Amino acid sequence: MSNTTLTKIELEARYQMREHDYDPNWDYEVREDLFTDCRAVWAQRVMDLLAARADTPFEVGHVFPADLNATNGAIAVYCSGTYNEPVVVIDLAAHSEPFAAENELYGPGEMNAAIEHTITHEIYHAIQESEGLPFTEDEAEDWNPFTRERF
Ligand SMILES: [Zn+2]
């Protein structure tokens, strides 16, 4: 059996696992008016790059801009139970210049890097859930799939 065939079987198995119909509007104030905001487009692009990797447990992922002010100060949330087609909500205002300037990791003008960091962090929680692992913040914070191998 060729590697290509194995991959196809794996992809089909993953497709069949995709059962959730989770709608983030149930839990969050989704900002449909920001779907085409450049920050939202970049966040989705990062998600697409992660989905294209062989070591992530999904082929399609979704990022929704949302107001998260009331969610324990979170700037983004991975929606539990969606790892086979992950849903991440992100507060774009929290990633704008004032946040970037105050953040220890990112300076002014590094908004895109901050968004990339946020999406990869949240997707690591999806990986943790898919493997039955606890959500640990340190590992999620350290994972950089674009520069380091994890597996
Ligand atoms: Zn986290």
How would you concisely characterize the structure shown here?
Helices cover 40% and strands 10% of the residues. The chain is built from five helices and four strands, in the order H-E-H-E-E-E-H-H-H.
Description of the structure:
The protein is α+β, with helices and mostly antiparallel strands. It has five helices and four strands; from the N terminus they run αβαβββααα. It has one domain: 2-Layer Sandwich (Zincin-like). Helix 2 runs parallel beside helix 4. The radius of gyration is 16 Å and the shape is globular. The two termini are 24 Å apart. 28% of the residues are buried. Bound molecules: zinc ion.
SSE inventory with pairings:
Blueprint: H1 3-17, E1 29-30, H2 38-51, E2 62-67, E3 76-78, E4 87-90, H3 97-102, H4 111-130, H5 137-142
Helix pairs in contact: 2-4
Please work out how many helical segments DSSP would assign. Answer: 5
In helices, the fraction of residues equals 40-55%
Oligomeric category: single chain
Number of strands: 4
The coarse silhouette is globular
Query: Biggest sheet, strands in spatial order?
Result: 1-2-4-3
Residue stretches low in confidence (pLDDT < 50, at least 5 long) are none
Q: Strand share of the residues?
A: 5-15%
Intertermini distance = 24 Å
CATH topology label: Zincin-like
Mean pLDDT: 82
Name the hetero compounds present. Answer: zinc ion
- Rg over C-alpha atoms, rounded to the nearest angstrom: 16 Å
CATH architecture: 2-Layer Sandwich
Structural class: alpha+beta
Total domain count: 1
What is the CATH class designation?
A: Alpha Beta
Largest sheet: 4 strands, mixed
Spell out the helices and strands N to C.
Answer: HEHEEEHHH
